[in-house]
């Protein structure tokens, strides 16, 4: 289906839903290009911002539930329109997932007025390899994708072979990527004054993606004068996402709530 027609159809659906006196839960809109679900807060909840989420999976698959859909009620309760993008896998071509994220931002920007948020208030969220993709979009100019803020969970940040997540590196760039290509997609080396504010959350005992990734990125943000916060929990390992069994789950929700309200 033509994407412009689909956007118009979803906008009409949103307007009609807005007049329903029984609307009491998030409305979900689905798109095919890119594959994306948008969760709109229930009527009566004030909306100001939006968030585009990129689940992790080492650039080989996507953890769409606990790093994607399961977060929707929480972010909707904060008044954020929340979108989860099932980006295509790169297979050595970084432009593939990047173009999906750019297309998602275009839809969100075009729909902002009807969906009730400012087009310049769309943030980006990523977990693990999705965190790498999110930080890449935050540090590179890619069409309509201009994130207002970054929310990163235990992110892969670098493509430096000495401390990257090797699976993400190989799936994104290829096993034999040259050093110039690795530098281009090492987010800690591409931070500038216009990079958006960031909140990083991770565990110190993460054995899959070394905390050095987040620490180097935080230091680069600080050096560039970009507002940044980092929360490192003592245990939890990797990939906890939205899971109540994670020991610090309530702390995570509290931290995010406070940070977003103070943006």
What is the topology?
Blueprint: H1 3-18, E1 27-32, E2 35-40, E3 49-54, H2 72-77, E4 80-85, H3 95-115, E5 122-127, H4 129-139, E6 150-153, H5 166-173, H6 179-184, E7 198-203, H7 212-223, E8 228-233, H8 249-261
The low-confidence parts are 1-24
Separation of the first and last Cα atoms: 37 Å
Element-by-element helix/strand order: HEEEHEHEHEHHEHEH
DSSP strand content: 15-25%
Q: What is the helix content? A: 25-40%
The rough form would be described as: globular
Radius of gyration: 18 Å
Structural class: alpha/beta
Outline the biggest β-sheet.
8 strands, mixed
Question: What topology, given as strand order, has the largest sheet?
Answer: 1-2-4-3-5-6-7-8
Short description:
Helices cover 35% and strands 17% of the residues. The chain has helices at 3-18, 72-77, 95-115, 129-139, 166-173, 179-184, 212-223, 249-261, and strands at residues 27-32, 35-40, 49-54, 80-85, 122-127, 150-153, 198-203, 228-233. The termini are far apart.
Task: Please explain how this structure is put together.
The chain is an alpha/beta fold and 263 residues long. 35% of the residues lie in helices and 17% in strands. The chain has eight helices and eight strands. It has helices spanning 3-18, 72-77, 95-115, 129-139, 166-173, 179-184, 212-223, 249-261, and strands at residues 27-32, 35-40, 49-54, 80-85, 122-127, 150-153, 198-203, 228-233. An eight-stranded mixed sheet has the order 1-2-4-3-5-6-7-8, sandwiched between helices. β7 (198-203), α7 and β8 form a beta-alpha-beta unit. The radius of gyration is 18 Å and the shape is globular. The N and C termini lie far apart (37 Å).
């Amino acid at each position: 289906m033509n994407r412009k027609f689909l956007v118009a159809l979803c906008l009409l659906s949103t307007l009609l839903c807005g007049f329903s006196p029984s609307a009491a839960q998030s409305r979900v809109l689905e798109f095919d290009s890119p594959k994306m679900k948008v969760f709109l807060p229930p009527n009566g909840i004030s909306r100001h911002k939006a968030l585009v989420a990129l689940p992790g999976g080492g650039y080989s698959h996507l953890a769409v539930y606990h790093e994607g859909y399961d977060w929707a009620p929480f972010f909707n309760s904060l008044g954020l329109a929340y979108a989860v993008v099932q980006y295509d896998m790169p297979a050595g071509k970084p432009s593939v997932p990047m173009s999906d994220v750019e297309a998602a931002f275009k839809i969100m920007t075009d729909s902002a007025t009807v969906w009730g948020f400012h087009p310049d208030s769309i943030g980006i969220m990523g977990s693990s390899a999705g965190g790498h993709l999110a930080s890449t979009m935050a540090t590179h100019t890619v069409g309509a994708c201009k994130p207002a803020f970054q929310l990163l969970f235990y992110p892969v940040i670098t493509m430096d072979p000495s401390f990257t997540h090797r699976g993400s590196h190989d799936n994104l760039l290829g096993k034999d990527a040259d050093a110039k290509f690795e530098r281009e997609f090492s987010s800690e080396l591409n931070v500038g004054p216009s990079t958006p504010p960031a909140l990083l959350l991770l565990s110190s005992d993460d054995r899959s993606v070394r905390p050095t990734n987040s620490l180097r990125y935080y230091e680069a943000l600080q050096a560039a004068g970009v507002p940044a916060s980092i929360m490192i929990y003592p245990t939890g390992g990797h990939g906890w996402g939205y899971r109540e069994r994670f020991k610090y789950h309530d702390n995570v929700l509290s931290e995010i709530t406070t940070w977003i309200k103070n943006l």
